[in-house]
Amino acid sequence: MAKAPARERPAFRCAECGWTTGKWVGRCGECQAWGSVDDVSAPTVRTTTAGPVSAPARPIGEVDVEAARARPTGVDELDRVLGGGLVPGAVVLLAGEPGVGKSTLLLDVAARFAGAALGSARALYVTGEESAAQVRLRADRIGALQPSLFLASETDLGAVLGHVDAVAPELLVVDSVQTIASAQVDGSPGNVSQVREVAAALIRVAKERGIATVLVGHVTKDGSIAGPRLLEHLVDVVLHFEGDRHSRLRMVRGVKNRYGPSDEVGCFDLADDGITGLPDPSGLFLSQQTEPVAGTCVTVALEGKRPLVAELQALVAPSSLASPRRTTSGLDSGRVAMVLAVLQRRAGIAVQAADVYAATVGGVRLTEPATDLSLALAVAGAAQNDPLAQGLVAIGEVGLAGEIRRVTGLSRRLAEAARLGFTHALVPPDPGRVPDGIHAMPVGDLGRALRIAFPGAEVLPLAGRRS
User: Fold this and answer.
1) What is the pTM of this model?
2) First-to-final CA distance of the chain
3) Model confidence pLDDT, tens digit, residues 338-360
4) What is the residue range of 29's domain?
5) Which of 425, 446, 426, 447 is nearest to 436 (CA)?
6) Residue 62 lies in a domain
């Protein structure tokens, strides 16, 4: 009797990374994406024949560029991040934590875009998280009532596309992409398949009709954008909206931008009557102390291309714990631990048995290495109870050997410090061109910087090298 051929086992493949498995699972074992594993049939050879084209190919010099000119939104700080404004047909993804002010900012942008000062353009604001009456109350509070601003509350993709057909807007705001669902795709709103389908449909409409589109995205617990990673690749611009709940300062940071710089930052002030741009936010990050205080030092950070003068504060207190506390706010905890170790080993500043608290002023977050020197001086001043001289800023990266390394944009940093009245700066060697109004003091190692900042203090010479 002939043996029956073995039945071919079904194969399942992840739509995100291509991982395959012999049985269905809810979560991909490679990229850990939920709901992305689907049944795939046996591979078949397919060929694609040439089809009609939407428009004939032309020499690149004959392509009209006016259709891709950016249009200002009316919010200068957002235009700075976008590279001049919103481009027709561009799709922008704005992500941020709940309650940070995404809806308030975009409602203000939609109202300004549709305002009389910018012409008679129509804007459509689609909300899937609130009712239309709730959005209207916010619009009353921030003064965002415009006759050319249309509002709809929908959670179905087909209804959203119907509103786009009826209104024919030049700006479309969808708040948020995780709350819209398509009837053609199984699953609840917000899962991988739904987010992918909704985003693809909105992007297709935006490109075909030249509608500038802004999608609001949720974030996960670790701060990354929720949904498939493919979403960030499909859109033209990715913006992160950052801010501390206990601070009025908000920052819009460009992560990806096909039409402008991808490292710009816009600063905003979130108040009860709305959100306003801050063209000069440096004063928010400085304390109002009239007398020098031990444990404080001023630095100049670069957020994109914008220099921001910020103040770091440190407190060193005796500890009765076996493992002393290391508490940070607005700083990278790993970088703070490294600077403390360098201070202990290379400069002889005893902090191993003390509680150390380090924070920034005004809610700004500083993560770049150029703030290392300022942090080291603040901790050393707190440990010795010795304040720094007024009018001094410190800029430089601290290496594990105690050397002070060069940083980018030093001239711009010094120019901003001089504009705000600072007269002296501790900088890495070979600072280059120094702007007028400030005296740069190059330091090659941490010990040299501490001896200049704290004359007469007990600091290990030559970065602690043995004689």
Assistant:
1) 0.77
2) 92
3) 999 999 999 889 898 999 999 99
4) 11-42
5) 425
6) no
